[in-house]
Amino acid sequence: MFSIQTFIRPHLLSLKPYSSARDEFEGEASVYLDANENNLGSLAGGVDYNRYPDPYQKTIKEKLSKLKGVRPEQIFIGNGSDEAIDLLVRLVCEPGKDEVLLLPPTYGMYEVSANIHHIGIQRVPLDEHFQPVFEKIAEKQTERTKILFLCSPNNPTGNSLAPNTVEKLIRSFNGLVVVDEAYIDFTDTPSWSTRLDEFPNLVVLQTLSKAWGMAGLRLGMAFASPEIIGFLNKIKPPYNINAVTQELVSEALDKTAQLGDMLDVIIQERTRLMEAFATLPLMEKVYPSDANFVLVQVPNANDLYGYLLKRGVVVRNRSTQPGCANCVRITVGTPPENDHLLEALQTYAAQNSA
């Protein structure tokens, strides 16, 4: 049976976390003289911002608990999901000794975080359908392999990973399995967060940057056992989510009906783009997508990227990623933005077929 206690870096087990003023006093008072705040107010638009924010984001967690079907003690809130990735690496990986396992092509911050902390990296490429190969992954794990990162729906390919394979990996992997679900809202695939109680080694990442349209606020979530969440809270900075973000996110979480309307538009536009791409001769392959972007393969990704840039359209050239030769990742825009993109692609196709 997996026990996070055996994976935590030994010196962190006994770490005494920083105790902030808001840790030591919760409640209401008429005069606050405990946190060295400026009691005269704030120059940032209101007196509220002169006070430190809730270090554990209790209001947001209560709302997320109802929305996601998990308990508040199973939720970690980070400055983007990148903070959770960084903290997980720091929590269980000894620099210069341990390693993480990645399945390229995948989200680049897993590798960056490992490199920052001098953690080894093992790689098992996804297959030709961008799916994990269980046997090859199992062969790569050693006693030094502490985290397996899975991105589903995957970035930059857009597809969801096969649930049966993901479950086999969670059950068999002797370490943390982190399933990054940044794009989960754009698919009907159930979140792995609904199965946290089955798998003590499972961590699920989500974000408000994509479907919720709050990339500029930088708020990500990790869902895991209360024990894992407790350790993440122990090693995080004391006030990692600012007051403005907490206020705006709390308001946004009450607008699930509007979220549904936005998702409908994005998914409809994704379908429209994919159907249009399929008719263009320059598109050698249009990959299936469960995200808010579409990966396409073209004869010359560098040339297409440069052409679109001259037309005022910025896409992402993913040609350097394993298995993505001459591939371009195109985010689903607004209907007028997508009209502009398609007109540019049609012109480019006509010019290159002459």
Give a short synopsis of this structure:
With 354 residues, this protein is of the alpha/beta class.
What would you note in describing this structure?
- There is one protein chain.
- By secondary structure, this protein is of the alpha/beta class.
- It has two domains: about 5-20 and about 55-255, Type I PLP-dependent aspartate aminotransferase-like (Major domain) (Aspartate Aminotransferase, domain 2); about 255-354, Aspartate Aminotransferase, domain 1 (Alpha-Beta Complex).
- The protein has twelve helices and eleven strands.
- It has helices at about 10-15, 20-25, 60-70, 80-90, 110-115, 135-140, 165-170, 225-235, 245-250, 255-280, 300-310, 335-354, and strands at about 75-80, 100, 120-125, 145-150, 175-180, 200-205, 220-225, 285, 295, 315, 325-330.
- A seven-stranded mixed β-sheet has the order 1-7-6-5-4-2-3, with helices on both faces. It has a four-stranded antiparallel β-sheet with strand order 8-9-11-10.
- A hairpin with a 6-residue loop joins strand 8 (about 285) and strand 9.
- The longest helix has 24 residues, at about 255-280.
- The protein is globular.
- The mean pLDDT is about 95.
